[in-house]
Design a protein that fits this description.
The complex is a heterodimer of chains A (202) and B (200).
Chain A lengths: L21 E5 L11 H7 L8 H6 L3 H16 L7 H15 L2 H15 L2 H10 L7 H14 L7 H9 L4 H24 E5 L4
Antiparallel strand pairs in A: 1-2
Helix pairs in contact in A: 1-3, 3-9, 4-5, 4-7, 4-9, 5-6, 7-8, 7-9
Chain B lengths: L7 H6 L6 H7 L2 H15 L9 H15 L2 H13 L4 H14 L27 H7 L1 H15 L6 H9 L4 H29 L2
Classes of the chains: A mainly alpha (202), B mainly alpha (200).
Amino acid sequence: MPDAILEPPPHTVPAVFTRALLDWLPWLEPLAVEALTERHIAGLVDAARVKSPYFRLLARDPDALRARTLTDKDIFYNSDAGLPRAERELAAAATSRFNGCIYCASVHSRFSATYSKREADVQLLLDDGVNADLGERWNAIVAAAVALSATPITFGAEHVERLRQAGLDDLAIADVIHAAAFFNWANRLMLSLGEPAAAIGA
Amino acid sequence: MPRMDTDVIDTLAGIEPGSALDAIRQRRPAARDQAQASYRALFAPESFGGVAVTERFAVAAFVTGLHGGAETASFYYSGLAASGASPELRRAIDTAITAAKGQGPYGSYPAGPLSRENTTGPVHRVEAETRHALGSRLAAAFDHMHLLVFHPRDAAPAALQTLLDAGWSTTDIVTLSQIAAFLTFQMRVVAGLRALAGAA
């Protein structure tokens, strides 16, 4: 059978940025669980990801998925100094808000709110967008993520200087850069290969 | 072909062994190694599958050319030449880049409260003469790459149907999407680290 576009089942399209749990529905056929080879499983990295249609779709190019996933994990989970996890997640959420990825923004705004305990500020970013006033340190991180995400890229020495003034050392600034850069990658995959849906029962 | 054993981000960002940025990258060793492994998986894979090496570098030259980052764009342009692309194809890609340059991100949201944030911009289609030179398959890929670079929130199933109609398989589309999305990452790491080094 020739490859075809999938018709997502009836669902509620989220029409606002939210911290609520969302589903993601693929527009292209993920690999079937029973069709996964050892190489596909290696591409998934975490065995639990076999449940995710997103990861089973990306597993069609298993080596690219595996390297993508391991890049992601070190940027966000490596706890050796640098930027606190809450603010790496903030950069991810701000990038997603700016690019318009409602699904990615939901996941990473939840993480940022959980680790920072600043639910109101995270919600303000979702509600009002990347110009919301979140206090200077967070404003500087959001502005850096936005300048890096613009095409052409507008990030420059003034953004680095503002981050330093806000108290970030160079490792922390490199973490902002990587977190925002990574979500340019992630946003484009999530936005273009499927769509978000309000979680069933939520 | 660019050397596969040299770290591409280090090369493009001008990071020398023993420099301050080298030390910073060493603190996130898996991110560094796996960004490079991503490059290898997409541009020097064990098997090219349904996306030929010339097609991979053609798409990369287009995506990086749209961003205008000189170092990265010329890196992939060199890769394109080394992959066996004809001078005609390279000229067609140059023409396609010039015609497609713009500013992003723009696009529309699902109807509702976010509609007031909708911003419009071009829906790009490679023009006829360039389409002919690129071939319909690569031209369809370029149209999609423009969407991914500048207005990914406008993505819809119809765009993927266009790729299927042009002869790309589902697996090919995953690879093409990874190439475009990875390059938007790689270019931003390079630009960010260059700015960080320059602001010392």
